[in-house]
Amino acid sequence: MKYEYLYNENNKLVHHSKAIRGAKYRMFPKAQLLYTYKKGDDRQFFTSIIQDSNPLFAGASGYGESAEHWNAKMKIVYEKKYFDTIFMQTIEFDKVEPEYNTGSKMPDLACYQNGDLVCFIEIYKTNKKSFKDIVKLQKLGLPIIEIDINNENKCTHIILPALLEANKQKYSELTTAIEKIEKKRREHIKQRHSELTKKYNQLKEKARTKFDQIKSKIDKGYRERQADIDRLSRGIHDFKIKIIKDKNRIKEANRAIKWTEKEIEKISKNARETESRKNDKIQKLTSEISRFKRETRDMGKAFTSLAKRCKIEWYCNKWIKEKNTLQNFKYWTS
Predict the structure, then answer these.
(1) Residue 254: is its pLDDT beyond 90?
(2) Are 110 and 99 in contact (CB under 8 A)?
(3) Cα gap 147→264, rounded to integer Å
């Protein structure tokens, strides 16, 4: 097993997941930088620069501390907390410092809160504190918690302050009462959850029924509206066909009107030509009549002038008034 925690060049404790590949690390603050960090595709780990002389690869430090013991201890230093299996809660601190002088009888970890030393933590792997050690540690007047990493990190309060020691039985009774209350609370929550689930299912079923009714009504309205739309579409289609037919009829009527207009124009033209021809004939006849009148008038004037120059007896008024035959007239004028 490899070590999971080492100090970097700035004497800051680093977990291997946060380490930098190729950087140098040390076992303790201000110790020699004898370790580096390697990372591959399937694993990442700290390793010694001088592997042959490094006790890390033997699974123990130079002080006989196993990798398991080191990792359990330095995990609490790194996270500043541990889980107490007696109090059944996580205990947090402002600062946790390891005891580096393993030759002494001091516990592994010293825990501080608001700058004050509040308790010690002992990590148990192979060597338990003896009775003499416990007697000496009692003089410190602080709680000491032992964490057994061989037994799922089970905690033992090997030393408690007098107040806690005197009330240990009451604490046990209180813990039992709290467990009963917690059990009752869980049962109440479970029952309440069951009731709420039942009510939720009822409301859900009611909502589903209501939704189905609304959906059925909407579907029915949609089908009716769709039928209306279809009827309207057919009506529009029929109306369009009728419009097309009416347009065709209008076209035919326009063609008939144009043809009639052309025929009327022809008839009017023929009538105008006939009228013009009649007028020409009338004008010609009028001209002939005028010419005939003019010639008759001229002949009468000429005849009268001729009669005056001849001074014949029949010219006299008395003679003119007499009834002469045409034979007599011809005789006298010949």
Answers:
(1) no
(2) yes
(3) 127
If you compute the radius of gyration of the chain from its CA atoms, what whole number of angstroms results?
Answer: 71
Q: Is 89 left (phi over 0), alpha (psi -120 to 50) or beta?
A: beta
Q: Quick count: other Cβ atoms within 10 Å of Cβ 49?
A: 13
Residues 25 and 36 sit within 8 Å (Cβ to Cβ): yes
Beta bridge partners of 92: 81
CA atoms within 13 A on the CB side of 290: 6
Q: Per the structure block, which two tokens stand in for 280?
A: 């020409």
pLDDT digits (tens, 9 = 90+) for 288-311: 888 878 877 777 777 666 666 655
Kindly tell me the burial class for residue 127, based on how many C-beta atoms sit within 10 Å of its own C-beta (0-12, 13-18, 19 or more).
exposed
State the Cα torsion 306-310-315-316 to the nearest 10°.
130
Cα(125)–Cα(7) distance, integer angstroms: 23
What's the pLDDT score for residue 172?
62
Name the strand (E) or helix (H) holding 119. Answer: strand 116-124
Percent of the chain, pLDDT > 70? 77
pLDDT at 23: 86
**CB 111 within 8 Å of CB 48:** no
What token pair was written down for 296?
């008759």
| pTM reported for the whole predicted model | 0.46
Q: Average pLDDT in the 310-324 region?
A: 50
Tell me the two tokens of residue 140. 């410190």
Calculate the CA 314 to chain-centre distance: 137
Distances (CA, A) of 108 to 70, 120, 166: 10, 7, 26
- Predicted pLDDT at 179: 77
Contact 144, 159 (CB under 8 A): yes
Task: Residue 8: count other Cβ atoms within 10 Å of its Cβ.
Answer: 19
pLDDT in tens, 47-66: 777 654 444 433 444 456 78
* Residue 129 DSSP class: P
Decide: 142 and 161 in contact? Cβ < 8 Å: yes
* Torsion 185-190-194-196 (CA) sign: positive
Residue 60 has a pLDDT of 42
